[in-house]
């Protein structure tokens, strides 16, 4: 049986069976899909296109369109204007076009979402979703599964939510928010902000001057190539530094909680470090032009480091 949307002022096309691709006109079309594998091309109007039971392929076209996946594994493509895409129950692949203020809302499957060049929102749901931003200032959220979120060239905001997520900043100045699971968060090339919400997470600063705020838990926090601010939060944290880490500051180093400075990626020993107190009351460890300033209870000791 064919599926139809509720009555609307749009032109309506509902097919019983599909043998050839359906190319809609330039009006505001309403297409409800079939029980087979649909291939539908919207045109210049503000269209509403829906899949049903098959593996459908829907193209929005130039208007402000709404595309909805059905029960199958669908491919949904927005067009050049302000589009909204909803995933269905299958494992869907969804791609926005070049307009601003576009939205993808994933369904219950393991969905893949790609933003366009504008300002987009990519929203995960129950599955293990993948969301990738592009050129605009995008917002990506993972939902309840184990998700992969990757920022694009704009200043993006990435929200891990529940599950064991992986968040990667892009070329802009991004915000990365880990959720309740055991997450990995990696800053990109910009000056990023990373916030961790408890758990046993791995956080990696990137090429910019990043700020990392970890929560309660046993975290691994890696300084990047920029001048980073690192806050471990409660719990035994490990602050990792490799070559060319810049000038970092650790605000809450706690020997009592089991925090450590990990320099095992370098061929150094305790005698290679220069330790001095700063005017602000921090302890500055210097090595080969790189430095880390540590706010601690008292002077840094050999036991505070892992070599």
TrEMBL record:
PROSITE patterns, sorted? HEMOLYSIN_CALCIUM
**Membrane-spanning ranges:** none
Which Pfam families does the UniProt entry name for this protein?
HemolysinCabind (PF00353)
Q: Give positions of region: Disordered.
A: 133-152
Q: Does the keyword DNA repair apply?
A: no
Principal place where this protein is found?
secreted
Which Gene Ontology MF annotations are present? calcium ion binding
User: Where, subcellularly, is it found?
Assistant: Secreted
> What keywords were assigned to this record?
Secreted
Its cellular-component GO annotations read: extracellular region
Q: Write down the InterPro entries for this protein, in alphabetical order.
A: Hemolysin-typ_Ca-bd_CS, Hemolysn_Ca-bd, RTX_toxin/Mannuronan_C5-epim, Serralysin-like_metalloprot_C
Superkingdom of origin organism:
Bacteria
Q: Which PANTHER family match?
A: S-LAYER PROTEIN (PTHR38340)
| UniProt-recorded name of the protein | Type I secretion C-terminal target domain (VC_A0849 subclass)
The organism of origin for this protein:
Albimonas pacifica
């Amino acid at each position: 049986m064919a599926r139809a949307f509720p009555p609307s002022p749009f032109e309506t096309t509902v097919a019983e069976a599909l043998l050839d691709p359906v190319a809609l006109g330039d009006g505001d079309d309403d297409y409800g899909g079939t029980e087979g594998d649909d291939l539908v091309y919207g045109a210049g109007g503000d269209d509403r296109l829906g899949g049903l039971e098959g593996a459908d392929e829907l193209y929005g076209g130039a208007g402000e369109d709404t595309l909805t996946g059905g029960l199958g594994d669908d491919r949904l493509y927005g067009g050049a204007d302000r589009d909204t895409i909803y995933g269905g129950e299958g494992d869907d692949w969804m791609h926005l076009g070049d307009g601003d203020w576009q939205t993808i809302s994933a369904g219950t499957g393991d969905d893949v979402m790609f933003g366009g060049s504008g300002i987009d929102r990519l929203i995960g749901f129950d599955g293990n979703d993948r969301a990738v931003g592009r050129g605009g200032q995008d917002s990506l959220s993972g939902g309840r599964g184990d998700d992969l979120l990757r920022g694009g060239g704009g200043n993006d905001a990435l929200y891990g939510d529940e599950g064991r997520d992986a968040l990667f900043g892009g070329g802009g100045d991004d915000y990365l928010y880990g959720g309740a699971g055991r997450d990995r968060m990696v800053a990109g090339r910009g000056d990023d902000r990373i916030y961790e919400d408890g758990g046993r997470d791995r956080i990696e600063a990137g090429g910019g001057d990043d700020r990392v705020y970890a929560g309660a838990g046993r975290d691994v926090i890696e300084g990047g190539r920029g001048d980073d601010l690192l806050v471990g939060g409660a719990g035994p944290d490990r602050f990792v530094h490799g070559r060319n880490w810049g000038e970092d500051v650790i605000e809450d180093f706690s020997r009592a909680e089991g925090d450590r400075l990990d320099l095992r990626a370098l061929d150094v020993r305790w005698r290679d470090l220069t330790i001095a107190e700063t005017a602000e009351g921090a302890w500055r460890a210097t090595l080969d032009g790189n430095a880390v300033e540590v706010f601690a209870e008292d002077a840094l000791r050999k036991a505070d480091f892992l070599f």
